[in-house]
From TrEMBL:
Residues 2-98 form the 2Fe-2S ferredoxin-type domain. CDD domains: fer2. This is 2Fe-2S iron-sulfur cluster-binding protein. The keyword Iron applies.
Length: 107
């Protein structure tokens, strides 16, 4: 089963089921993650900065492509509410701009 590791959340490991978005996997494990639009791909508040394993993601969704074209989603970022994994392991971090105030982030 694919796995997500979030480095600045004390190396949190999350198993991601086939077809499950990263946001749904994080929520299923009880992890709070910013998602201002409710996970509908209408903002970029749920993004993750991918540090390793970009090859393990499914192709960009229409929403992600739209934000890339507008310069609001960098090449090393994905929207957790939109993206799924095809296998392997992915490592990322929560961007500074979308950290939640009630969570302690590691460096």
């Amino acid at each position: 089963m694919p796995k997500l590791r979030v480095q600045n959340l004390a190396n949190l490991e999350v198993k991601v089921a086939e077809g499950q978005t990263l946001l749904k996997a994080l929520q299923a494990q009880g992890t709070d993650w910013m998602h201002a639009c409710g996970g509908k791909g209408r903002c970029t508040s749920c993004r993750i900065i991918v540090q390793q394993g970009m090859q393990n993601f499914a192709p960009l969704t229409a929403a992600e492509l739209r934000y890339r074209e507008r310069g609001r989603l960098k090449d090393n970022e994905r929207l957790t509410c939109q993206c799924t994994l095809t296998g392997g392991e992915v490592t990322g971090i929560v961007p500074e701009q979308t950290k939640l105030p009630h969570i302690s982030y590691s460096s």
